[in-house]
Amino acid sequence: MGAVTQRELLAGFLRSRREALAPEEVGIVRGPRRRTPGLRREEVAQLSGVSVTWYTWLEQARDISVSRQVLESLARTLHLTAAERRHLFTLAETAVPDEAPPRRSVNPTLCQLVTALQPNPAYVIDSCWDVLAYNRAYECLVGGLDGLPEEERNSLWLLFTRSAMRTLVVDWQREARQIVGQFRASAGRYPDDPRIGALISALNEASPAFVAIWSEHPIQAFASATKRFHHPRAGRIDLNYTKLAVVENPTQHLVVFLPATPSDASGLGRLAAGDEADAAG
């Protein structure tokens, strides 16, 4: 018995969702003599704007061309969930169009994890590099986040508009170019996102340094690395940093900093001690 092909999996998936969808859910009145479970093929075809023959071929696992627009139409007609829509595109061997879910919604368990990573700095960012959640260690490292409005609590905005970042981040120029390259690669996936457009416009007005780097069109893939900081209170701290994807929301990532050496761990301890002293004072 031969292996099941991708087209056969696609055909079976479409058939199962067609048969599971009640006619009433798409505005079709069920007649007294109707025996078909779910929708008929011709009904799916009509609602999706394709020919009955073409859709029938698709459910027969024929090797026919399937466009992204047709897949989107089928997903709407069959009332697919977000997960089912992604599965449909995967079976059709077509890239899934990126959708940006609401950024400000961070899973409470993820927020709890960020807090639990203390004394290691950690935060959650989205595709626009907005900082959505962070722990006290990251607040102490960067400083001033608590008092900022949401739109200014952004990694690029902080890096390019706060003069203190140029002394905090060792080799600021190299770091700035890397973060712009990573941001440009990420932003290219969401060309219609108004938040990304607004951020770029604001940075163009506020930072000549950003304009100079952005105009070079750098593209940078993310790679775990060692970030070097010179903190005014804790001194030199080298931190290994990595980024972890949030599976339930592909626009979000958890960023974690870990001490590169025992000496750097002591530096994080000095940050925490200073924060406790400030709170006590």
TrEMBL record:
Stated name of the protein: Helix-turn-helix protein
Source organism per UniProt: Micromonospora violae
CDD domains named in the record: HTH_XRE (cd00093)
Cross-referenced InterPro entries: Cro/C1-type_HTH, Lambda_DNA-bd_dom_sf, MLTR_LBD
Source taxonomy: Bacteria, Bacillati, Actinomycetota, Actinomycetes, Micromonosporales
Single Gene Ontology MF annotation: DNA binding
HTH cro/C1-type domain: residues covered: 13-85
